[in-house]
Amino acid sequence: MDMKLKDYVTLGxxxxxxxxxxxxxxDRFDLASYLILLAYVFDFLDGAVARLTRQFNKFGSxxxxxxxxVSCSIAPGFLVFYAFYxxxxxxxxxxxxxxxxPVATGTVRAARFNVQRAxxxxxxxxxxxxxxxxxxxxxxxxxxxxxLGPLMSGYMYLVxxxxxxxxxxxxxxxxPYVSHHDRKFKGWLRLGVWFWLLSIPISFILGFAIGxxxxxxxxxxxxxxxxxxxxxxxxxxxEVKAHWEYISQWKKMASQS
Length: 257
Known about the structure:
Elements: H1 5-25, H2 29-53, H3 58-87, H4 92-115, E1 123-125, H5 129-141, H6 143-146, H7 158-170, E2 176-178, H8 187-210, H9 215-234, H10 237-256
Antiparallel strand pairs: 1-2
């Protein structure tokens, strides 16, 4: 099957995910984190390129799904392992167990929707793996993990650990998460999108300017909190109701297949 332009962009994300794992093997946690962020950029761009060139096909969809497995599940999983084994000084078995959970839930998510496709207009069904990857990079590089974690003889690392468990489980939930697909952003949701788009480049530039290079990760973590907890509060109730009605029908079809 012929490769399209968007497919090469998708492979760029795969390359970033693999490079992130290699960076961790060389103790470059910071570089590994930035590479996962870059993989997210490629994931965004392949969709934009597909829309501009009108290159939509099943092959591209499957390729994107498989590449996301590496860049948005496996690479962040290794990042989690490194953070808890090398930074938090957890035992090998414990760091491995923590790593296993998000990789496993990301894999289950991919398998579930490969077997039974599901599309709820205007929503992601469960937390998408790309959002999870962003949240992991932000959390593990934030002041919450690096500065507050070592307090109380390291017991404060339990806070980011609980966050990892919670959002890992959200990947296999059926909860609606606001999506840009089939949606016209209005009101507070539109304001949130602009805040998201502007906060990342501004925090990146400002962080380097003031010598606080991890500022972008604290800002992204804040953005993730807003997305997960506040976005549902300003989403029209009729849209949320329609989502759960669709999920009810989808579960019935899935049980019959």
